Amino acid sequence: MMQVSGKVVKLFVSQLGSSERLEQEQLFLDAKGIVSDKFYDKDMDRSILITAIDSYQLAEENGIAMRYGLLGENILIDFNPYALAPGTQLQIGETVLIEISQPCTICNHLSVVDKKLPKLLKEDRGIFAKTIHPGTIASGDPITILHA
Q1: Is 0.90 topped by the overall pTM?
Q2: Which residue, 5, 34, 76, 98, could crosslink 129 as a Cys pair with Cβ 3.0–4.6 Å?
Q3: d(CA 110, CA 123)
């Protein structure tokens, strides 16, 4: 029996020509990534960035307050998936299936927010995933970890 591990808290897309993330009610994922995101149809293994609320809490505990979306995530979730191995699949909602592809390496652009941030979140910024089964996801959708 599959057990729900958590849920989608917020969803974001990146726009061409902007570093700002726009919050969305829903995202449509297909084999090329997140439709309408500036990274769509680029690198399939890095097409979806998942970040846990834990990352924002860790920053806040170290005196760095940030609004959601600032870490560059597409999907903000309420549990920590960072220890999941590449190949692990996550079902989101009824139909969407994504697969963990690699950990997210820290970007130095985060030092613009706070110079301590890249080092602080070195292992805790997020994980990349790719779409296995397309569909639409929404804030509040349940997430179930399926083993690879």
Answers
A1: yes
A2: 98
A3: 14
Cα dihedral across residues 51, 52, 57, 59: positive or negative: negative
Question: What's the one-letter identity of residue 40?
Answer: Y
CB 39 within 8 A of CB 21: no
CA 123 to chain centre: 14
**pLDDT tens, residue by residue, 46-82:** 999 999 999 999 999 999 999 999 998 999 999 999 9
Amino acid 45 reads D
How many residues does this entry show for the chain? 148
Which tokens is 7 given? Answer: 């849920």
Helix (H, G, I), strand (E, B) or coil at 138: strand
Domains and CATH numbers, the chain: 4-146 (2.40.33.20)
Please answer whether residues 98 and 130 qualify as being in contact, where contact means their C-beta atoms are separated by less than 8 angstroms: yes
